[in-house]
Amino acid sequence: MEHQLDEQADVIAEAQATIASDRATLLFANQQLARYAKLATDGANTAERWQQAEADVAARRAALQHDLDAAAAAQSSIGVLQSQGEEADGAIARAQAALAQARLNLSYTLIYAEADGSVANRTVEVGTYVQRGQVLFSAVPNQTYVIANFRETQLVHMRVGQPVTVSVDAFGGEATQGHIDSFQRGTGSDFALLPPENATGNFVKVVQRIPVKITLDGPAEALRAIAPVMSVEADVAIRPRPAFLARFF
Questions:
Q1: I need a labelling partner for 94 at 20 to 30 A (CA). Which of 5, 114, 190, 195 fits?
Q2: CA-atom Rg of the chain in angstroms
């Protein structure tokens, strides 16, 4: 479209140059007519030359008017081309919006995991129709950790970062190493489906359990074999191990 506008601008410039030439020629023809008219009045010129000069002036005027009309048509074509350009821009914008919508719709066909891991408990097969909000599978992250429910009286000396030895029952008690990652801000019973209500006169103090997240460090082979809800035993080293015991472990 810009190329067409540039070509049309060249056409308009050429038409304006032609109009300038036509006006100069018409001016000369009018001057010639005035001279022939004076000579004819004085009897020094023939009526034929005078009439020819009048015809030449009329022809020059007609040529000027023709070129003026052509320039006006060329100028109006600029507006038409600009309107067409605006329509084309609108069509491009609509096409880009449709493309963006199509890409968005396509993205809805893909399921993205929040973290690397594996699929478990899959309930969908190829060709199955699914509904919005339907659970298709469970995603098990590669990062392995243990939620250990320690008694609140055991947390006195526990700190984030302390080393932990975790024994997995499924591995015959084989130990793997980890460290304390975080403590839950609340007891396990407080976040239960039916939390206990102790605001009564018959209050009996019960030791609560606090979930502690333990991130496992290795070995890698053991981490890949650990699955959710396995039973483990966790031993937290709340004090540094004496140096003389290092050779026994």
A1: 5
A2: 48
Give the DSSP letter string of 105-160.
HHHTT----SSSEEEES----TT----TT----EEEESS-EEEEEEEGGG-TT--T
Q: For 57-110, how does the pLDDT look when each residue is reduced to its tens digit (9 = 90+)?
A: 777 777 777 777 777 776 766 666 667 777 888 888 999 999 999 999 998 888
Cα 23 to Cα 72: distance, rounded to the nearest angstrom: 16
How many Å apart are CA 118 and CA 144, to the nearest integer? Answer: 12
**Tens digit of each residue's pLDDT (9 = 90 or more) over 39-51:** 666 555 566 666 6
Q: What is the pLDDT of residues 135-156, one digit of tens each?
A: 888 888 878 888 999 998 888 8
- Tell me which CATH homologous superfamily contains domain 143-248: Efflux pump adaptor protein, beta barrel domain (2.40.30.170)
DSSP code of residue 181? E
The domain 2-107 having CATH identifier 1.20.120: the answer here is yes
Angle, helices 2-42 vs 47-107, to 10°: value is 170
Task: Give dist(CA 84, CA 5) in Å, integer.
Answer: 11
pLDDT of the residue at 249? 52
Domain ranges, ordered by start, for the chain: 2-107, 115-141, 143-248
Pair 2, 89: CB distance under 8 Å: no
Per-residue pLDDT for 224 more than 60? yes
**What is the DSSP track for 6-27?**
HHHHHHHHHHHHHHHHHHHHHH
